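Morning run. Coffee first, then this:
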Amino acid sequence: MPQTTTTPSYDKTVDIVRSAIPRMAELKIPITPSNYAVWFEYLSDSNAGLRREMDALLGREEPISDVEMRDLYERYLEERSEKVASAKTALSRVVNALMQHINAADGHYNSFSAELKDVAEGLSGDVTGDNLNVLIDRAVNATHAALERSAEMKQQFSDLAVEMQTVRSELARTQEEARSDPLTGLYNRLAFQEELSRLGAYETEDSHTPCLMILDIDRFKGVNDTYGHLAGDHVLQAVANEIRASVRGRDVVARYGGEEFAILLRDTARSGCMAVAENVRLHVARSTIQLPPELGVAEPIAVTVSIGGAWFRDGELTEALVDRADRALYRSKEGGRNRVTWES
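And here it is:
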């Protein structure tokens, strides 16, 4: 869903600038450009989604982690729109050039038409031999000029068509990148929300009810605290690969936020959904993650995941489906982790 945004006034902006760094220091949040950007956005109250998530993080007892701050920045503030804007600018330039060529062609052919009209009018009266030769020369020269200009414009149109296709391909690639999580290559939360919004249509097209699973890496904060955030990134990538290997072509997998993932099975029987969830859990639990030598961690890392699942109900809002899956995940956590729990 699109976020509600507002623009703070000048006075409010000044207040935010003055208060942001002291608040960050008080909460022991590293004052990096990305963290400051998140905090400024939060204090400006210009992004409803970010506001809700930050309020929830600030309302708990444990401090906000670096991973959580980075995740907020990636999902709400990272400027992935630059490439899209660049591609749109390039496409606009091509279209403008095309229109200029069309207008030039129109003017050229109008001139050609006027020249031939003059020749025709000259032929309609009494014409001497000399005058006839002049008129013939004018007609021939105008025709040659038109053919030469036509060939030139044909090449220009051809070049513009190639350039437009290049821009189109770049724009499509950039739009796909904007839907992807840069670390894992999975869908990001925005793209996944778009898929969830289509569940009503999927239910009428498919034989089975759509199923949503939300997964969380157990005690992931301990991985970051013990081995560092680069190690944490490798763990996230490894878990993403295990999840990706467990689903089929039309199923959707996303990094939902931080160490949380989501799976949407569009057309799978309930027994199949349960099997997929258990398969993911087992594969992650049995795998060991060997970190790159440069990180200085010799022993492989083992992690587990907790999973909560729910099935779509006809006509419901997707928020209700997510809430049921999230509650089931919470019960998996409460029940000891490394387990699958389905909605009641």
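Residues 100 and 110 are 15 Å apart (CA to CA). Good start to the day.
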